[in-house]
Amino acid sequence: MSKITNKNKRNISPRVMIYLFLTAGAITMVFPFVWMITTSFKSSLEVLSARVSLIPEAKKYIEIDREREQVEFALALKLKREVSRGEGEIAGLIGAEIDGRPKLQAALSNTFSSLRLRIEKLFARYPSPERVEEKTSELGATAERRLREAGIAETLSSPTRELFLARLDRLRTDLDRLAATAVAEDQPIPVVILAGERRGEEIEVPRNRIIRRRFLWENFREAWQAAPFARYFFNSILVSILVTSGQVLTSALAAYAFARMKFPLKEPLFLLLLATMMIPKQVILIPDYAIISWLGWVNTYAALVVPFLGAVFGIYFMRQHFETLPQDLFDAASIDGCGRFRTLFQIVLPISGPVILTVALFTFIMTWNELLWPLVMTNTPEMRPLQVGLAVFNQESGTDWELLMAASTFSILPLMIIFFAAQKYFVEGITRSGMKS
Fold first, then answer.
1. DSSP secondary structure letters along 320-367
2. Which of 15, 172, 274, 326 sits in a 20 to 30 Å window from 204, CA-based?
3. Each residue of 276-291: pLDDT tens digit?
4. Report field, pTM of the whole predicted structure over 0.85
5. Reduced to 3 states, what is the DSSP secondary structure of residue 1?
6. Are 228 and 209 part of one and the same domain?
């Protein structure tokens, strides 16, 4: 019995390791996607903040002239400013004597970082004046206790130690003095505007005007209105549908010929066709542009559609599947008097639905995500597909990363919907293309 158990353990262990490896890989691949989505809900200040957070934090906003402005309580900013000033002065006083002592330097930095974090938590909502006074006194006492516990004072020379302790005591006094300025619950609250043209301006607002928001859905509306994304979507959908339809049709015809018809030099021609997949697009970009320009197709739908109506990948993929179909099927069709086209369109294609859908899905995704060719071939906003529009929007939006992430999020929604809707047939098509009769 023990031998069987040990054998099962040996068999299970590699499988568990494989699952863990695949799970880690999946998380690694999904993380940038999740980061893009969560960033699209953040404010501009949170995106540019040194503090990294995956989930957007709750921020405070007020409406001014129909514009949303991010604000912070003036008292909270003053308290944090005083803590930072105290940290700077103390670091200046004792810096020379704790230089080269990483533990003491870390204790000093961590203490004041913790104080600022506590102030943020205290002012998540505006507390009562008694609460402000209680917590700020606690902040000063905490700072003094932590720095004493770190043993910083014991390492200092006598004159520096006295200055150090005096500055700690003055920090407590300054925090208590600021806490005394907390407003009553029925009074307007002073807030400071954090961004925009009115950045740094301090105004007083009633409590009910302060809106706490974590997810900014308005970013999607602002991104949509910041550029002609409706036109970009129309262009991408039109081009992707036309290219996908054309590739499925031409791939089916060519694949049927290479799989089921006999003609001279069939194998060398197929190998030559596959060899063209090894040529980078950038190598033939200039000759292609010269041909399109000679035809007068620059900045037209023809330039975005016609060159891609045939693709080697679709031909190869369908040919592999058509070769797996039993010969009896074609013999029966021939006996019934079916010609080549009737056999293809009435017999072969109806039973090749998953494979056709797989080719269509691959083609649609590649066309939707195409950037280089449309970037070269289009020169007006009316003709830009979505990916080119995103690239231009990225240049024009500057540091509005949250708007860029919002635009990127809604640009991939059609692909996600199509993929999850066709996932079953996609997997089945991949499986069928590798089967042998």
1. HHHTTS-HHHHHHHHHTT--HHHHIIIIIGGGGHHHHHHHHHHHHHHH
2. 172
3. 888 888 888 899 999 9
4. no
5. coil
6. no
